[in-house]
Amino acid sequence: MRVSTEDQAHEGFSLPEQKERLENFCKFKGYEIIDYYTDAGISAKTGNHRPEFERLKDDIKAKKINTIVALKLDRITRSIFDWEKLITFLDENNAYIDCANDEINTTNANGKMISRLLMSVSQNEIERTSERTKVGLAGAIKSGHIPHVAPLDYKHEDKKLVIDYSTKDIIVRIFDLYYSELSYQKISNLFKQEKVLGKDNWRDSTIQTILENEIYKGDFVHGKRTKHPTYYEDVVEPIISKEMWADCQVQKKKNSRSYQRTLTYLYLQKLRCPKCNRILGGKATTKKNGNTYFYYYCNDCKIEFKEKVINDYFNQFINELVEYDSVVNQFFLPMIKQKFDEPKEQLEKEIKEQMGKLERIKKAYINGVFELKEYNEEKKIVENAIEELQNKLETTYCTEELKFTPKDILLKRDIDFINKVKLEKEYQARTKMWKDYTRQEQAELIMKYVDDIELALVGNEVIITQINFRDSICKPCQELYDNGYIDTAKPMILGNVLGSVRFSNYLPEEEVGEIIMRLRQYYDVHYTEATYYVDKQMFYFNFAEDNSAIVRVFPLEDYYKLDPDNRMETYRFGIIYINEEDKFQMQEMDTAFDYIPDETNTSVIYTKEPIPISVGVKPVKFCEEMQEETN
């Protein structure tokens, strides 16, 4: 006898009913009942462990019984594979099967054939049900109905998984602490000391599970422990950004034992052997002069080369990567923080819910449900949550007054370029370049941005064929470039000299005008236009010989859309430039590096010609500044 929950619900084959009908069947057939075998609540799918079914087979082997009696064939199994194994087993042990509802006779070939047909129908029913279940489940998950217990900082609301804003900062803090290189153990010990959520039993494994859970970046993996898990992207509201989640997975690699080395290898775990594709090892030698030289090698293929081979390739663009990292730290992270900050409405709703919870606790205490000690403990937890939510609400009001825009990024990079030309000493003193990084800092930057480096062999020489950067970090930069809000260096012949200029994509004239107007709060920048001859790939513009420096070049129309096949003869480009005599116009030198002109200045109507304007600024690192103002 066997019953699963599904059978009981849909077919009514309860165990007592099966037992009664089978006893009557045995009496009719004249069978002697030796024993009863009952698998309760277990499906007959392949792979399920059925203790009673195994005991039945053991009794057949021991010759205690010679016939299995069941109500239907699917009480025994629903798998063709398992059925064939069972038929072979019965033949080997001179045993048979008899079913009350199915005319099954396994003593001859026709009976076995009929049993196989019936089993095929049964298995097909299982597979169709499974398919319908998977489709329904996938639709539910995509709608935010996650079939699991709500993880920390989430809760079920209207059957959907939503953020629990009363505890949300715990998850954010865990990711921030781990990204700051605290280990699982240090985070759990810290939470124990602080009794976070009133608990003093935080464990390393709890922190690890949280950091590895894709749900916190808005994704969900169904069947994670199976051979074929299904990945669903963006199914719930995320608590942390995908970039932060990916960074913490990289940090996990760094924290593993393979990275605990006395020497720092810049490209460890990034290089694979060009012959066998195995990850290369690293070694170093220290000469008498004290200099250490690093190598990468493959023992199996007997390949070895100096780290300098990779360094020479990286040097072509490493300073651009350092500049980009500065943009990420100054702008992307604050912008991401804004994106994931709690909306005011949600915070206000959560405060209302917590106030209601506090009221219920008070009523429970009055009605004698709580002792005074328990009441005080519960009351304190809720009051702390309310206080935290109110602080967040105040911060939200504050940060809403000052938001960064993509144009701020372009503006800041323009100002940085001019600062590099006009305030060279101050720029060098304030700006950390690749050469100023320690080896550990260089390794961390490469770990952060590079997925892997592809190598090839030309004769016996190892060369780099491609560097694969991490999409989660570099994709936002590409999107900004495509939309005209970040620049890239383009090679250009200036007279007889090969150089490069900063190039950005098309922006509408109003936006270009706003950027020029804001730049002029700091520097007396100039504007001109140039003709680009498409067939000759050459610019023509008329500069006075006054040591002018081009700040940035940009198209005046969206030629990617207007002329995708390059059939136009000429393009028109705008050029922002500065002259040798142009000086920084602010009194405080710090302003040039720590602030950018405010876009809210509406006292001046844009014109391409320089005009005097009043100055308004906003801090570059707005998170810290705003926090100071709030405090």
Task: Describe the global form.
Answer: elongated
What structural class should be given to the helix and strand makeup?
Answer: alpha+beta
Which value, in Å, is the CA radius of gyration? 35 Å
User: Termini distance?
Assistant: 71 Å
Beta-strand content bin: 15-25%
Please tell me the overall pLDDT. 77
Number of strands: 21
Strand arrangement, largest sheet? 17-16-19-18
Portion in helices? 40-55%
Detail the poorly predicted runs: 335-342, 398-402, 602-608, 610-615, 621-631
So how many helices? 21
How would a textbook summarize the main sheet?
4 strands, antiparallel
Provide structural commentary.
With 631 residues, the chain is α+β, with helices and mostly antiparallel strands. Helix content is 45%, strand content 17%. The chain is built from 21 helices and 21 strands. The strands form nine sheets. The chain has a four-stranded antiparallel sheet. A three-stranded antiparallel sheet has the order 9-10-11. Helix 12 runs antiparallel to helix 13. The termini are far apart. Residues 335-342, 398-402, 602-608, 610-615 and 621-631 have low confidence and may be disordered.
Task: Provide key terms for this protein.
21 helices; 631 residues; 4-stranded antiparallel beta sheet; 17% strand; alpha+beta
In short:
The protein is 45% helix and 17% strand. It is an alpha+beta fold.
Q: What's the helix and strand layout?
A:
Blueprint lengths: L1 E2 L1 H6 L4 H15 L9 E2 L10 H11 L5 E4 L9 H13 L3 E4 L9 H34 L11 E4 L2 E4 L4 H12 L4 H11 L9 H9 L7 E3 L7 E3 L9 H14 L25 E6 L5 E7 L4 E4 L1 H7 L3 H23 L3 H23 L5 H28 L6 H17 L1 H7 L8 H11 E9 L2 E9 L1 H12 L5 E7 L2 E7 L5 H11 L6 E8 L4 E3 L8 E7 L3 H4 L7 E9 L11 H5 E3 L19 E3 L2 H9 L1
Parallel strand pairs: 1-2, 3-4
Antiparallel strand pairs: 5-6, 7-8, 9-10, 10-11, 12-13, 14-15, 16-17, 16-19, 18-19, 20-21
Helix pairs in contact: 4-5, 6-9, 7-8, 12-13, 14-15, 14-18
